[in-house]
UniProtKB/TrEMBL annotation:
Descriptive protein name: SEC24 homolog D, COPII coat complex component
Organism: Ursus americanus (American black bear)
Biased composition (Low complexity): 38-59, 92-114, 246-255
One example of a Gene Ontology biological process annotation: intracellular protein transport
Residues annotated as domain Zinc finger Sec23/Sec24-type: 352-390
Gene name linked to the record: SEC24D
Annotated region (Disordered), positions in chain: 1-114, 130-280
């Protein structure tokens, strides 16, 4: 897609590089550690110099055949025939875990595990509710696709939001459409209908069921289009569901606010079908898109998403555009059951084949030469001998004859069995252990929480994760209770009764027993059940109110260390740890700090005990997950630090009430125990020459600049990696990324998980802008801003975000867009929804304090976001709002999500809002009585009480229209003006536009 003749050359283009903002902040907030390259970090040039054009990557497409993923929906519905004989798929846990539902991607704790939403259709349909609104379109089914989409013959697509021109992406951009008011909208009148009302065309129909079996999918994904070569054109946006057309243009600030049709400003929307990863630099479908992904040589976007799939060739160009270059890596992402799990490669004692110089692992980016005797590394260009055991002849196009038999030659993601060289002390690791640590202070006993936990543990211990091929879990379990002292329990299988040992010296915690503390659950089942029955009684008469916290973690970590195994602590805690002990905390919540330069203190841990504890935990492979039940301030900034940095999760249940919240807590506990997880992990991100990973965000610890250490990493955690240039990048060779995670499985096997991704490089800014991914950009901006919160005033951080947004868009306008009137706001296709997301980020309670949000809640959300993947951050910042009343009970399809604005609600409607953390059911005053009856079993709206718990929405807050709690709900309508500050989407567009105009002048 050539941009020639399309790139505007405005009169101001002769100004200095950059657009006047200096120096560019570029996503960092004055952190001096990122200035310049540390010595010794430059990658050596390979003996062959820069790679020969087109020479480094596998040639051509995969041959079609039965082993290939077909193009049609029939294949897409199930596992494709496996390509690789030999070892079974390693990650077959994917099939034993809950299916991933891309449109409801929450993995985060608490009220909205939105898989619940996905079940909604089934559940409601079981109620035999009558269908409403006869004559309405089936939910989730938009109107027929644009007639001019010639390449995509798939299921019907809805029109994109109105400023986008329907059309084919592979054609040159159509003329831009300037909207100077509602009259200029190209949309048919029907699409102006308010969302949520019965009508033929839900404008923002985002979610589409997978195609019916046998349905032909778009040729845009055809394997025949595979072109690994250095081509730039074509592969950029050629997936169905991408935003078609040229840049968006809107009227300028004066008119914008009053005249803009809400439907004409961009909305987060898309869909897709089958996406094959065979093309370098191909922008994947949006994270909200429901599609099937085929690994054809690059890691699935479920594992890695980048802020842009085309890197600028030079650092000057990167500074000019100020688009962060980053990858969001979720190495253990859950893969839906209709996608292929990872294959396991076992080279026996030889171990993985690696480049001698840069130590990159064998992957599709290695080029075999000299008849197959040597290979050139795609990362450092070093020419290596092929080890004798690995030799294979090449075919006429220079590809190994076993190309399709070896996952590491033809796939983007796979695993290796690690040899003893990859194990601590060159010994095979012991299987991990889980230690359950229960706060038995007075209030927890009194409110029944301890009893609830103990009862539930009996059930969940039956479901400890195990290797696919094993019958029972190898994970050992141990139990500790505590208040201001610690109680260890001996639950050895030959005991008639569990034995308790009390450790009162919490200043120097030691582990009083080794034998009998960590046991096999099956073997010790009766003793363990005995213990769990006794614990609530044991402390029933305790009046102890004080608790310790750091010594609890210390004890768990030392127990794991003594057993020489990695593991996970499950801590159930309720209060501020005020007992005399290391990590003792005082109540330092101070609202007076809000909106001052000292506000950052509220986000910092109160003592450095927790920081060094986290470091020790990571060093010993000890992951900490914390279930917190606070009834007042407990200093989440301090208590949550260890869970955050050790790859654990913090679950928080404010003012826990047994009848309201226990179901949610038990769900969270079950999911957390069962979820896919790797222990004692080290991640290394390697890159081809010219750029390197410089900054990392996530549940990680780093002792040097390259090794990302993680006590554990589970299927929900992501690490965001920022890249910087250290040289020029070549358009021919592209930019290659290899992420390798060395870890221990739940069965105690040492493995390497490898994800490879190839990106394009260009010296044209337009190519860079074309290939951006807004969801990943927001993930990066959120994490870098939330990290900066610890050091900088929030006002400064917000300004940097606004400036950088304006700068990115101004650079586009100046260098890539056609000349246009200054009054028009011009957005690149790929960034159409950037302003709405950026505004959501700016309004988040971490960056914008609101009086009704507690300090703990803000600290919690800050920590939570730091480990989020792209799907989770997208949902978190822009919640899903579903018109439940339009649900087609005969279909399993959810209604299409609508925009988060009050204007989209209707009195006759019932709406579900979820952001992965909170879930609300909003009832309009004129909600259909039949639906009210079906959901709540009461005759009408007036009979619904907001503390009612529906079996369908058991952890959902009920909000009745025009009643007080509606205020809480409204702050999630993120396109509207905030109740306590924060711009509306339209106001923010005006603000950004003004900034852009200033930059351009
Ligand atoms: Zn190398």
């Amino acid at each position: 897609m050539s941009q020639q003749g399309y790139v505007a050359t405005p009169p101001y283009s002769q100004s200095q590089p950059g657009i006047g903002l200096s120096p560019p902040h570029y996503g960092h907030y004055g952190d001096p550690s990122h200035a310049g390259s540390p010595p010794g970090m430059m990658k050596p040039a390979g003996p062959l110099g820069a790679a020969a054009p087109g020479g480094m990557l596998p040639q051509g497409p995969s041959p079609p055949g039965p082993h290939q993923f077909g193009q049609n929906g029939a294949h897409a519905q199930g596992h494709p025939p496996q390509r690789f004989p030999g070892p079974p798929p390693v990650n077959s846990a994917a099939s034993s875990y809950a299916p991933y539902s891309p449109s409801t991607p929450s993995s985060y704790p608490s009220p909205a595990s939105t898989s619940v939403i996905a079940q909604l259709g089934h559940q409601l349909s079981a109620m035999h509710i009558n269908s409403y609104g006869s004559g309405m379109a089936p939910p989730g089914q938009g109107p027929p696709g644009p007639p001019s989409a010639p390449l995509f013959q798939g299921p019907p697509q809805p029109p994109q939001p109105s400023i986008m021109q329907p059309g084919s992406q592979v054609l040159p951009p159509p003329p831009t459409t300037a909207l100077n008011g509602p009259g200029a909208s190209p949309l048919p009148p029907s699409t102006h209908r308010q969302d949520g009302l019965p009508g033929p065309a839900p404008l923002n129909a985002q979610y589409q069921p997978p195609p019916p079996p046998g349905q032909t999918l778009g040729t845009g994904y055809s394997p025949q289009q595979a072109n690994y070569g250095p081509q730039m054109a074509g592969g950029q946006l050629s997936y169905p569901g991408g935003f078609p057309g040229g840049p968006a243009q809107m009227a300028g600030p004066p008119q914008l606010q009053k005249k803009l049709d809400p439907d004409s400003i961009p909305s987060p929307v898309s869909r897709g079908q089958v996406y094959a990863t065979n093309t370098r630099g191909q922008v994947p479908p949006l994270v909200t898109t429901d599609c099937v992904i085929q690994d054809q040589g690059n890691a699935s976007p479920r594992y890695i998403r980048c802020t842009t799939y085309c890197f600028p060739c030079t650092s000057d160009m990167a500074k000019q555009a100020q688009i962060p270059l980053a990858a969001v890596i979720k190495p253990f992402a859950t893969i839906p059951s209709n996608e292929t799990p990872l294959f396991l490669v076992n080279h026996g004692e030889n171990g993985p084949v690696r480049c001698n110089r840069c130590k990159a692992y064998m992957c599709p980016f290695m080029q075999f030469i000299e008849g197959g005797r040597r290979y050139q590394c795609g990362f450092c260009n070093c020419v290596n001998d092929v080890p004798p055991f690995y030799f294979q002849h090449l075919d006429h196009i220079g590809r190994r004859l076993d190309h399709y038999e070896k996952p590491e030659l033809s796939l983007g993601s796979y695993e290796y069995v690690a040899t003893l060289d990859y194990c601590r002390k060159n010994k095979p690791p012991n299987p991990p252990a889980f230690i359950f640590m229960i706060d038995v202070s007075y209030s927890n006993i009194k409110n029944g929480l301890v009893k609830l936990i103990c009862e539930e543990l009996k059930t969940v211990l039956e479901k400890l994760p195990k290797e696919e091929q094993e019958d029972t879990s190898a994970i050992r379990v141990g139990f500790i209770t505590y208040n201001k002292v610690l109680h260890f329990f001996n639950v050895k299988s030959n005991l008639a009764q569990p034995q308790m040992m009390v450790v009162t010296d919490v200043g120097e915690v030691f582990v009083p027993l080794l034998d009998g503390f960590l046991v096999n659950y099956q073997e010790s089942q009766s003793v363990i059940h005995n213990l769990l029955d006794q614990i609530p009684e044991m402390f029933a008469d305790s009046n102890e109110n004080e608790t310790v916290f750091a010594p609890v973690i210390q004890a768990g970590m030392e127990a794991l260390q003594a057993a020489d195994c990695p593991g996970k602590l499950f801590i159930f805690h309720s209060s501020l740890p005020t007992a005399e002990a290391p990590g003792k905390l005082k109540n330092r919540d101070d609202k007076k700090l809000i909106n001052t330069d000292k506000e950052k203190i509220l986000f910092q841990p109160q003592t450095n005990v927790y920081d060094s504890l986290a470091k020790d935990c990571v060093a010993h492979g000890c992951c900490v997950t914390l279930f917190l039940f606070p009834s007042q301030y407990v200093d989440v900034a301090s208590l949550g630090l260890v869970p955050q940095l050790t790859g654990g999760t913090l679950y928080k249940y404010n003012n826990f009430q047994m009848h309201m919240d226990s179901q949610q807590f038990l769900n969270d506990l079950r999911n957390d125990i069962e979820k896919k997880i790797g222990f004692d992990a080290i991640m290394r991100v390697r890159t081809s020459t010219g750029f390197r990973a410089t900054d990392f965000f996530g549940g990680i610890f780093m002792n040097n600049t390259t090794d990302v250490e993680m006590a554990a990493i589970d299927c929900d955690k992501a690490v965001t990696v920022e890249f910087k240039h250290d040289d020029k990048l070549g358009e021919d060779s592209g930019a290659l990324i290899q992420c390798a995670v060395l870890y221990t499985t739940v069965g105690g096997q040492r493995r390497l998980r490898i994800h490879n991704l190839s990106l394009n490089c260009s010296s044209q800014l337009a190519d860079l802008y074309k290939s951006c991914e807004t969801d990943a950009l927001i993930n990066f901006f959120a994490k870098s801003a939330f990290k900066a919160v610890l050091h900088q005033p929030l006002k400064v951080i917000r300004e940097i975000l606004v400036n950088q947004t304006a700068h990115m868009l101004a650079c586009y306008r100046k260098n890539c867009a056609s000349p246009s009137a200054a009054s028009q706001l011009i957005l690149p296709d790929s960034m159409k929804v950037l302003p709405v997301y950026m505004n959501c980020l700016l309004k988040n309670c971490v960056l914008l304090s609101r009086p009704e949000i507690s300090t703990d809640e803000r600290a919690y959300q800050r920590q939570l976001v730091m480990t989020m993947g792209v799907a989770d951050s997208q949902l978190f910042f822009y919640p899903q709002l579903l018109p439940i009343h339009t649900l087609d009970v005969k279909s399993t399809t959810l209604p299409a999500a609508i925009r988060c604005s009050e204007s989209r609600l209707s009195e006759e409607g019932i709406f579900l809002l979820a952001n992965g953390l909170n879930m609300f059911l909003w009832l309009g005053v004129s909600s259909p009585p039949e639906l009210i009856q079906g959901i709540f079993n009461v005759p009408s709206f007036a009979h619904v009480s907001t503390d009612m718990v529906s079996i369908f929405f058991f952890h959902t807050k009920l909000i009745k229209q025009r009643e007080q709690p509606e205020m809480v709900f409204r702050q999630f309508l993120v396109e509207d003006k905030g109740l306590y500050g924060g711009s509306s989407y339209v106001d923010f567009l005006c603000c950004v536009h003004k900034e852009i105009c200033q930059l351009l002048n």
